[in-house]
Amino acid sequence: xxxxxxxxxxxxxRTDDGVVRAVDGVSFTVDKGQTLGIVGESGSGKSVTCLTxxxxxxRRSAMTTGQALWKGEDLLTANPRRLRxxxxxxxxxxxxxxxxxxxxxxxxxxxxxxxxxxxxDVSKKRARARALxxxxxxxxxxxxxxxxxxxxxxxxxxxxxxMIAMALINNxxxxxxxxxxxxLDVTTQAQILTLIxxxxxxxxxxxxxxxxxxxxxxxxxxxxxxxxAAEVAEKGGVExxxxxxxxxxxxxxxxxxPRLDIDVERLVQIQGQPPSLLRPPSGCRFHPRCPYVMxxxxxxxxxxxxxxxxxxxxxxxxxxEETKNREAAKLLAGMMAEAS
Amino acid sequence: MAFKQDTANQQPMQQTALDLTGDELLVVQDLKKHFxxxxxxxxxxEVASVKAVDGVSFALNEGExxxxxxxxxxGKSTMARCIMxxxxxxxxxxxxxxxxxxxxxxxxxxxxxxxxxxxxxxxxxxxxxRKRVGFIVAEALEVHKLGTDAxxxxxxxxxxxxxxxxxxxxNRFPHEFSGGQRQRIGVARALAVNPKLxxxxxxxxxxxxxxxxxxxxxxxxxxxxFNLTYVFxxxxxxxxxxxxxxxxxxxxxxxxxxxxxxxLYAHPMHPYTGALLSAVPVPDPTVGRHRKRIVLEGDVPSxINPPSACRFHPRCPRFVxxxxxxxxxxxIPRGTSTSHVTKCHYPLERWPMSEEExxxxxxxxxxxxxxSAPAETGS
Lengths: 340, 379
Hints:
heterodimer; A: 340 residues; alpha/beta; Rossmann fold; 8-stranded mixed sheet; 4-stranded antiparallel sheet; B: 379 residues; 12 strands; 20% strand; disordered C terminus
């Protein structure tokens, strides 16, 4: 059994302007010790997917359907008490902005200890010792002195490490990291990614990494879900997505990325803007921006289908396989030619 | 002049000998910007200074793009604001078409403002939400009295078209546009007065990748069409590589390395540049996974009390005790190309290099350098 199995998850928000379909039929699974990367632009629904799984959406305006099976137990129908038990102990989350996700008026050590004492009946002393241990593990220098510091005394990268320490304090089985390195410099990003990999090896946790950076995904993910306008455009193993991409949106994402290893005169650009989720385009949601658009794309929303019969690699596009193989090969060959 | 003392004994006047031909558009020499740190309310006493920019020199030709990279807090943005004279530099010269801007008053500066414009990072914060797009783009034209109302309107619509917006959206407000479109408005505003130099301060950092590509392509097209010169500041090394002709790496208010784009990315010489390059994720699973990141220890030190001598020495894998923390390296050519300058005693001999190789090579060169050291320090 998969650790987490998400089936046809839909999250719609009621707003004054109408219903926003922030997540519209997303499915994926995460196995033990595995890393899943969710890529997409802002507003594609990657964060809402994870907030829904964690039960962190505003109860009043959010409507959720589908399933999120955590070790067989549906999180979407679990009662709030059970959810609180799971959150922070079995599933932990790291948020994007380390500046705003720590409480500024409490000491770091107390905040870390609280995360542990909420879930386990341990003494203050024991919790503090564990907090110290984790600060050490995430590479904070002189941790015994930093325990009694306040968040403002830490730099951005160090705060993010404190967040990771807090997420890991109860040895979670699944760590959801929502753009954990976006607000950080490259050198700090390298520190954080190395740390997540190391901790994953040590504790065997599964990781869901939400990011818009294809580079980060290529480096640490085993499986990749590419999201566009609240839907899954393509998903598969990391090798399949990068070596045999099968959706025009994935091609666009790859082509629009300036890279260190490849010289291009002009970047591929995806025309236009991501659509509004209040009134998503008919048929395939990518069709207004797709250079390969056909009449059928405007009518029928393509279902996720297997690529050459491989159920591990799914894509939602009407283009025939032959064209896609050719175009993907062209894109990659272009990159190869430039690289050499 | 509290800082005068320490600059006097820390800076052995090892300025870059800039190879000047005389027809550069912009020449910045030994630019410094120190912000005072004061204590006391009524009688403010200057207790220290934040050395945000501490001796930056470079030259820029017309039609060229200089990319500036570095971590947050390294002084890139402060430098940009000094060049634009939005901040008064503490010392140093900024020569634009031969005129020294650093000594000009506000009134004397005004005619030059037409020739240098700026594009800002956050398209949500840099456009006045209460003004219509037409007004925002036209403002500089009106300030400089460049034409009648009708001419200005025509020019604005033309500009909107140039940057890929609908000219009929002249009367809309910024909130009616998406992030990428707003950044286009920012570009149109910068172009309005036909400037020669555009300083772009992280123009694509706040944008999604697909939109980022649109803006980068637009900036490249405009440069070709209008012979623009860019100072392009970014923290994303991929983006800088794509757009720049030359790249300058900054660390803690100083230049660590400057080189042509090809040289810098193929043969970085400063260990900091090496660490930065190795930290950039490669969007290719076969390459990316087997690559070793050089992980720098700790954080960027405070610019109030920067480390002695080489500012990178507390984090440097090639740190040699007794040399790097005693003698400040000069920013000079260390390799074959004279345009490739680096501020390091032990520049990297080759690239790529792993962290261990860097360390070993560092101490090996140290032994060699120690033998010849007396001659060097004797002068």
